[in-house]
Specification:
Dipeptide-binding Protein, domain 3; two-stranded antiparallel ribbon
Length: 326
């Protein structure tokens, strides 16, 4: 930011806080916003009770108000489990498929979350949730220090879960420890997927010879067959290795292609391997007197991304993305 203010830099893409962007705007710097095709998720270690129960993870999804989380930073927008491969594929899904998918809602549904836990025998005592065997339900979220946006927003996630009755803390871990030990060795109860292109949101990073998904999803094996219920009540099954081969061999936009997405979405909505929370805008700062980026705003629908009631459009004299929410 200092380089910009003394005109030693004229274009960059960093992920600055809204306050910093405002300071640059006041100096004559303009912003260009595009969605980043990586959702930021809450990943829960499913190797320990009661987090190994899919319905418990589903309840957590219903607790979190993603709109509130996104507002904590301001250069982000909320996403839900229904936004498959956030944010680019979901808007193109046939309406018949979208209508059948589970709606976890971006604003949360704590009544639904409570009913799920109660149906499993969980109960509340003195405002907090307990497992059927009488153990208090608590959670610890690991986050990498230095990622200020993530630590701020996942702190809000922790506060929301605590307010619901699941005492939750956030730990900001040193980067080397977070990426070098905690994530690869699955030494966490819950962790934030910080812009790593998770396999759940972007079809990336199979773990190859280990046959499991990227960074820490060691309890979900890509070679295993998983059963799951479709929204219509029928039971389906999926082998992710075979599914990946079939998808790559399919023709874009055909019924076979969309049926594979429908299968994958039904699987993720039941097993809840990660809980999508928000996505961010990649903000490019530039000085219009040096760089003329106005042509980028003539791309039509590509620069008019609309998700969950939020929209953003190109504006060469933009100040904050919140001014472009409708």
């Amino acid at each position: 930011m200092n380089w910009f203010l003394v005109h030693d830099a004229f274009i960059t893409q960093t992920g600055m806080a809204p306050a910093a962007l405002g300071t640059l705007n006041a100096s004559g710097c303009a912003d260009f916003y595009t969605p980043d095709p990586n959702s930021w998720d809450l990943t829960i270690n499913v190797t320990h009770y009661p987090w190994d129960i899919p319905q418990v993870r589903q309840a957590i999804d219903y607790v979190i108000n993603k709109t509130e989380v996104a507002r904590m930073w301001g250069v982000t927008f909320p996403v839900s489990e229904g936004t498959l491969f956030v944010p680019f594929t979901w808007p193109t899904l046939p309406k018949s498929l979208r209508d059948e998918m589970v709606n976890y809602t971006i604003d949360g549904n704590r009544t639904k979350a409570a009913s799920i836990l109660e149906s499993l025998g969980f109960y509340k005592k003195n405002g907090d949730w307990y497992t059927p065997d009488g153990t208090e339900l608590t959670l610890r979220i690991e986050a990498p220090s230095g990622y200020t946006d993530a630590t701020i927003m996942y702190e809000d996630v922790a506060n929301q879960l605590t307010a619901f009755g699941i005492p939750t803390t956030e730990a900001a871990d040193p980067l080397g420890t977070y990426w070098g030990t905690i994530i690869p060795d699955v030494e966490y109860q819950a962790a934030c997927d910080v812009d790593e292109g998770s396999a759940w949101s972007g079809l990336t990073a199979w773990a190859g010879t280990e046959g499991v998904w990227s960074w820490g999803y060691t309890s979900f094996n890509a070679m295993k067959v998983y059963k799951f219920p479709y929204p219509n009540g029928t039971i389906g099954e999926i082998n992710l290795t075979q599914w990946d081969k079939e998808l790559m061999a399919s023709t874009l936009g055909t019924p076979e292609y969309w049926s594979l997405f429908y299968q994958y979405d039904a699987f993720t909505q039941y097993w809840m391997p990660t809980i999508p929370v928000y996505d961010e805008y990649m903000v490019t700062q530039y000085y219009p007197k040096v760089y003329n980026c106005s042509w980028m705003y003539d791309w039509g629908p590509l620069m008019e991304i609309s998700l969950s009631g939020y929209s953003t459009s190109g504006n060469s004299d933009a100040t904050f993305p919140s001014t472009k929410f409708s």
